[in-house]
Specification:
Layout lengths: L15 E3 L5 E7 L4 H16 L4 E7 L9 H12 L4 H10 L6 H11 L6 H6 L4 H13 L7 E4 L2 E2 L6 H27 L1
Parallel strand pairs: 2-3
Antiparallel strand pairs: 1-3, 2-4, 4-5
Length: about 190
């Protein structure tokens, strides 16, 4: 009997922008229909540029479906695009077009960023990646997230406001702590 081969799904937690080995990890929980998530995205892009090699980013989906009915399906579309290595392109596309998140528009956005999967629309209609969005939501809830956007730096929740200057200060402090820890570690090895 023929057995259908199923490729493993890459979850959003494994889609990293920037240096995967960077000492600082930013984790954003957000929603593609949220204006605040779009604002934080601009701040995070600036930080990734300023701290190239030292900071990376993971975006986790936390659609607020009571007020943003299309955010869950948009999150599924981002994960679907990620299966072809197009997560970050799709992520930016969805944040750029927050009022165009219907199923047909999502297929168009996917085509725009270079997704070639012929079953993309079918997978979206069948919610093939819905469980992965739900995994992000469950993890966010377990971390105490109740509103978006939420930002964690190396796993520690950052209090609002999430301004560029505030986040930059925290990152500089974390980098300083990391350098100090590395020096201590190398001195111990030498001893």
């Amino acid at each position: 009997m023929y057995k259908k081969e199923v490729a493993p799904v890459i979850p959003s937690r494994d889609m990293i922008a920037g240096n995967p080995d960077a000492p600082i990890r930013l984790t954003v929980f957000g929603d593609y229909e949220s204006a605040e998530t779009r604002e934080l995205n601009e701040v995070v892009k600036s930080i990734l540029d300023s701290f190239q090699g030292s900071v990376n980013l993971v975006f986790r989906h936390f659609p607020m479906t009571r007020i943003h009915q299309r955010a869950h399906k948009a999150a599924e579309a981002a994960i679907a695009a990620g299966q072809e290595g197009k997560f970050w392109e799709m992520h930016q596309e969805l944040l750029t077009h927050p009022h165009e998140l219907g199923t047909t528009a999502l297929k168009s956005h996917a085509r725009e960023v270079g997704v070639v999967n012929k079953k993309f629309l079918e997978q979206l209609m069948n919610s093939d990646f819905g469980w992965y969005v739900q995994d992000d939501i469950r993890e966010g809830i377990s971390l105490g997230i109740t509103e978006i956007p939420a930002l964690l730096i190396n796993g520690v929740m950052v209090e609002k406001p999430l301004s560029l200057s505030r986040i930059t200060r925290i990152i500089k402090k974390e980098l300083s702590n990391h350098k100090t820890a590395s020096i201590v570690k190398s001195k111990r090895k030498a001893a």
